[in-house]
Amino acid sequence: MRPFTLIVAPFHLGLENVGVGAGPTRLLEAGADQILSTRGMPAQVVHMRAIGNPVTDLDAVTDLNRQIRHAVMQARDEDSIPVTLAGNCITCLGTLSALDTARIGIVWLDAHGDFNTPESSVTGYLDGMALAAALGHCHDELRERTALDTVPAELNTLLLGVRDLDALEEERLAQSLVTVRPHDRLGDTQELLDALRERVDAVYLHVDVDFTGPGGLPREMACGLVDHIQQTLPVVAVNVTNYNPEVDGGGVMLGCAAGLLGRVRELPR
After folding, report:
1. What does the pLDDT look like over 22-40, one tens digit per residue?
2. What is the pLDDT of residues 132-147, one digit of tens each?
3. Alpha carbon distance 180, 202 (integer Å)
4. What pLDDT score was predicted for residue 57?
5. pLDDT digit string (tens) for 179-188?
6. Does 4-261 carry CATH code 3.40.50.300?
7. 140-178, pLDDT tens digit by residue?
């Protein structure tokens, strides 16, 4: 069995250990490296370095994505399995840029669509544009600076578990080739996974922990979905994002996040 490399990126748009940026550190304190142990050996932990004061442009986000890209590439070179714990979903750019995206699929588990652009977004929040940026709809400069040269195909993207879409974002998704299934309409998931397997050589699995827990998929169903994805598809890299311990006083979402992480198994070479 191959070892895991746990890439820890505790940042929220340039702020270290604040909000969702505190999630990776809290998960590591809860034993994330032990959860990903292989034959009793904890995962190798790689910490992304401090990136200085947050800035008004995209420099901090670019720097973090470049670090993640390097860490994912190094893990794959060492025949280790890259799993990234990150605050923000926009870290998908760093992971994807380390992979051969010509025939890659994306399975994106999220309560939100993350398919806004600066023109459609109500808030202007960068994380709400993460999937759109990865698929070439916006933030070309950020994608280019992260060296994501070939965008994955919309047709090979599954957005599962959504329950909170902005009106314009919903229109944009309807006009795209992205396959969308709300959290209460996942009955044909296995068919979607089987069809995707025929079209791609590798899959990036993106897990935003807000797709489970209160208001979303029950923990058991969410973990079962992650199992089905990995049993069906050639997943080669995983990002687990958006756990915010500052609003998780009872530890419910910590348990959900740890449970999801525990379902990550040995991935294909």
Report:
1. 999 999 999 999 999 976 7
2. 999 999 999 999 999 9
3. 20
4. 65
5. 999 999 999 9
6. no
7. 999 999 999 999 999 999 999 999 999 999 999 999 999
| Per-residue pLDDT at 52 exceeds 90 | no
Q: For residue 179, what are the contacts with CB-CB under 8 A and spacing of at least 6?
A: 157, 158, 159, 192
The sign of the CA dihedral 64, 203, 44, 255 is: positive
Model pTM? 0.96
- CA-to-CA separations, 168 to 144, 175, 264, in angstroms, rounded: 26, 11, 34
Q: Which two tokens stand for residue 219?
A: 């923990």
DSSP the chain: -PPEEEEEE-EETTEETSGGGGHHHHHHHTTHHHHT-BTTBPPEEEEPPP--S--SSSHHHHHHHHHHHHHHHHHHHTT-EEEEEES-GGGHHHHHHTS--TTEEEEEE-SB-----TTT-SS--GGGGHHHHHTTSS-HHHHHHTT--SPPPGGGEEEEEE-B--HHHHHHHHHSS-EEEETT--TTHHHHHHHHHTT-SEEEEEEEGGGBSTTSB-HHHHHHHHHHHHHHS-EEEEEEE---GGG-TT-HHHHHHHHHHTT--PPP-
For the chain, the domains span: 4-261
Q: Report d(CA 237, CA 269) in Å as an integer.
A: 10
% of the chain exceeding 70 in pLDDT: 96
Phi-psi region of 183 (alpha: psi -120 to 50; beta: other; left: phi over 0): alpha
- Are the beta carbons of 55 and 61 closer than 8 angstroms? no
